[in-house]
């Protein structure tokens, strides 16, 4: 069963090389395009100096020049709300809305049609900014990132805004990290390098894979060890959730974009932790036709001892998506 | 995250006030300077007062108070900033152990984002 699901790459995936100035912004775009992906996502405050200020005319021209040259389309910009930007002051809703509007102007100036809304954004803020998003034809997507899932209490409140307003400009952006069936091996190994007990780590991984509720595992580990690092390993089971991919089904028409999280792409084109085939089969069967944007994030767990090769990790992830989407 | 790259030893040297090191923000995006809650430098195990640290990003320098109030200028992702640390006593040229703790206020994180690093650097 083929599908209309489209493939994008978030340039966030190349953060290691970009951070170390081994790849320029143009080289990130070129690498994304070379995988066959047709869409580009960015974390604006990572990729563009001064973001969320609207970029200069010269940058905008260069940006669209790159889009033409590499035959890709701007898809999504990921925004943040720095509520506590000023020490000792928590933003009012009005201040948050003003910041949000800057991101909408930024996204529009570079041709993005979707904004990934950071998960701590309240439903009230969304409602206040929605008319401006509609005017600018920018779709807002609240990111459903583990440990939240699409049916969490917080997401139910956002869902209620979507239902009540009937808007076409607000929906969900699930992150595939919400389907972590096995705990990420790269992360576990890093914890062991940092001093975690390998036996406890093995136990936590086994319990997680069996679907045992994290609270049980955390309590059991608290009896085995009084070291904080072992508890952090146990708590990984709470943070890296797995829920049935069918949980997406009732919300399919509200899913506007998807983050294809990956931490370790294997040589056989599978992701170590996330059963992508199962999730993509659900997306295909129930008619999702937006983008899945590769979001490689394994670098942070291996950079202490290994050379990071984000380009290869993204390439494998895109190959995997292509196989599952078209099979 | 990025602890390994926080301290940039090639940029370490003595200066007229004490010494300076290069530093990268341990985060995947740039942030306004006001969000950098703490920059704590230690020298050979001695923690130095945070009020003695001046940060310079792309030519603009900020002391602690100025940094806390700087809502616009940003420490960009991967940008090597200079941390200049006042140190009265004469610093011996040669190898020193530098410690660096950076604490960021990130709105969506339920706890402070604290990263620490340590490196042996040559301060000439």
Automatic annotation (TrEMBL), chain A:
InterPro entries the record matches: IolE/XylAMocC-like, Xyl_isomerase-like_sf, Xyl_isomerase-like_TIM-brl
Domain Xylose isomerase-like TIM barrel: 29-323
Pfam families on file: AP_endonuc_2
Gene3D superfamilies: Divalent-metal-dependent TIM barrel enzymes
PANTHER family membership: HYDROXYPYRUVATE ISOMERASE
Designated name of the protein: Xylose isomerase-like TIM barrel domain-containing protein
Species this chain originates from: Emticicia aquatica
Automatic annotation (TrEMBL), chain B:
Alphabetized Pfam families for the sequence: CGDB (PF19906)
Protein name in UniProt: C-deglycosylation enzyme beta subunit
Alphabetically ordered keywords of this record: Carbohydrate metabolism, Lyase
Record organism: Emticicia aquatica
Domain of life: Bacteria
InterPro entries registered for this protein in UniProt: CGDB
Annotated C-glycoside deglycosidase beta subunit domain residues: 9-108
Family assignment from sequence similarity: Belongs to the C-glycoside deglycosidase beta subunit family.
